[in-house]
């Protein structure tokens, strides 16, 4: 765990409505999300893989301890936001890591959001059932 005054690298990640504030501390590879281990927060393998993707792309799995605070959205949004935040923090720590992260599009913010519901429709695009008679 991080101590007061310890140097860290910071990155903000976003996905849908989730926002992750990520800190990278020099360490052994421990990942803590909202005070819990990342394996207990992200139980799906795809979410765990998304969180580890920037570290694997830069071969930095055992170089940093990661501490993240995530708010808003759901678990899938959290995983994407943490991944984006880790990628940005890695670039702050070492500018030469930008190319491999960009190659796997880990630095690009996923702009897809939920479409708003329109007036007169049941959902964003689903119209009420048409009855002829």
- Share of helical residues: 25-40%
Strand order of the largest sheet: 1-2-5-3-4
CATH architecture: 2-Layer Sandwich
Number of strand segments: 5
CATH class: Alpha Beta
Shape: elongated
**Rg, nearest Å:** 18 Å
**Low-confidence runs of at least 5 consecutive residues:** none
Number of domains: 1
Largest sheet: 5 strands, mixed
Structural class: alpha+beta
What is the number of helices? 4
End-to-end distance, in Å? 68 Å
**Percent of sequence in beta strands:** 15-25%
Structure, explained:
The longest helix is centred in the middle third of the chain and has 19 residues, at 75-93. It is built from four helices and five strands, in the order ββββααβαα. It has a single domain (9-103), classed as Ribosomal Protein S5, domain 2. Strands 1-2-5-3-4 form a five-stranded mixed β-sheet. Strand 1 and strand 2 form a beta hairpin. Helix 2 (45-57) runs parallel beside helix 3 (75-93). Helix content is 32%, strand content 22%. The model has no long low-confidence stretch (mean pLDDT 94). The protein is elongated and about 70 Å long. The chain is an alpha+beta fold and 133 residues long.
Quickly describe the structure.
The protein is an alpha+beta fold and 133 residues long.
Secondary-structure map with pairings?
Layout: E1 9-15, E2 18-26, E3 31-33, E4 36-37, H1 38-41, H2 45-57, E5 64-71, H3 75-93, H4 98-103
Parallel strand pairs: 3-5
Antiparallel strand pairs: 1-2, 2-5, 3-4
For the structure shown, list the relevant keywords.
single chain; 133 residues; alpha+beta; Ribosomal Protein S5, domain 2; five-stranded mixed β-sheet; 4 helices; elongated
